[in-house]
């Protein structure tokens, strides 16, 4: 299956409680990272991987997300009249990235439940899942490698990243073994947010997945796990241990990743991305050095 036929799912129904009160009325996915909302980076990543059909799973008070990806003719006309072609291009870009659809999750019952809500839209084809809290730098493509690995093996593919063992309790952790003929690894087991002493490795699952449609059948009967939620990790654990299936494969990411789900890391992401930009970096970097010297 070519990447042009693959759809993407972006779960965006979370309450964003760590960013209250900013997220009382604004979806956390719409918090700006420099001058674009976080979710636009994720949509751009999917589009760059050749995916042009994207389903966003939303909850209550999330209309701002669908509004952002709609065209705004009155704004475009005003920018055109002003001759502000730069801003006009950026406004139009967000409306032209992909064919974006929306479905409500209703009650937030976990990531597994959110993915299950995509079943009707996705159908019987493999699909990608991108979490909005993890921004992957466009200079370090990940999704294309994951899609290629899925096409090669037929397995569910998850993104892994080495983390400090002291922080593994914040992630799903993977037990792995080498995969012959590939830089990827075979996943033999998964544990959701284990204590450090119980973790099978320091390889953490980060928010990118390429999944076969068979995951839906597993999610249908997956019982609520940690936090009383339907965990995608639990469904992947079943696929990983099936003796008659292609299993689960991990692609280890060693590039630049920005965690926008934590307040401090969110600030770091803004600083890092702004510092690297040609239009902002030359002014920002000297100021950052001066500021650091005053600390």
Automatic annotation (TrEMBL):
It catalyses: alpha-D-glucose 1-phosphate + UTP + H(+) = UDP-alpha-D-glucose + diphosphate. Residues 7-274 form the Nucleotidyl transferase domain. Keywords: Nucleotidyltransferase, Transferase. Its EC number is 2.7.7.9. It is an enzyme of class 2 (transferase). One of its GO terms (biological process) is UDP-alpha-D-glucose metabolic process. SUPFAM superfamilies: Nucleotide-diphospho-sugar transferases. It holds the Pfam family NTP_transferase. One of its GO terms (molecular function) is UTP:glucose-1-phosphate uridylyltransferase activity. Gene3D superfamilies: Spore Coat Polysaccharide Biosynthesis Protein SpsA, Chain A. It comes from the Bacteria. InterPro entries: GalU_uridylyltTrfase_bac/arc, NTP_transferase_dom, Nucleotide-diphossugar_trans. Belongs to the UDPGP type 2 family. This is UTP--glucose-1-phosphate uridylyltransferase. It comes from Microbacterium foliorum. The gene is gtaB.
């Amino acid at each position: 299956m070519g990447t042009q036929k693959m759809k993407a799912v972006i779960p965006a129904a979370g309450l964003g409680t760590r960013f209250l009160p900013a997220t009382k009325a604004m979806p956390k996915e719409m918090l700006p990272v420099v001058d674009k909302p976080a979710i636009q980076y994720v949509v751009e990543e999917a589009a760059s991987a050749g995916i042009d059909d994207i389903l966003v799973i939303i909850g209550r008070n999330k209309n701002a997300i669908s509004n952002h990806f709609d065209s705004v003719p009155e704004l475009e006309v005003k920018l055109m009249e002003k001759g502000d072609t730069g801003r006009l291009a950026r406004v139009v870009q967000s409306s032209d990235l992909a064919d974006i659809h929306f479905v409500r999750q209703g009650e937030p019952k976990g990531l597994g439940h959110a993915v299950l809500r995509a079943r009707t839209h996705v159908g019987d084809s493999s699909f990608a899942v991108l979490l909005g809290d993890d921004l992957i730098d466009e200079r370090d493509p990940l999704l294309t490698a994951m899609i290629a690995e899925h096409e090669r093996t037929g397995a569910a593919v998850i993104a892994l990243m080495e983390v400090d063992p002291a922080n593994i309790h914040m992630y799903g952790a993977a037990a792995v073994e080498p995969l012959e003929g590939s830089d990827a690894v075979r996943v033999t087991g998964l544990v959701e947010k284990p204590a450090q002493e119980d973790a099978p490795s320091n390889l953490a699952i980060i928010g990118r997945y390429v999944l076969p449609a068979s995951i839906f059948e597993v999610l249908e009967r997956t019982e609520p796990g940690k936090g009383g939620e339907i965990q995608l990790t639990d469904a992947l654990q079943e696929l990983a241990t099936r003796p008659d299936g292609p299993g689960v494969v991990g692609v280890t990411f060693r590039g630049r990743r920005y965690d926008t789900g934590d307040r401090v890391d969110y600030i770091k992401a803004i600083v890092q991305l702004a510092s690297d930009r040609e239009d902002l970096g030359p002014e920002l970097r000297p100021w950052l050095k001066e500021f650091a010297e005053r600390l």
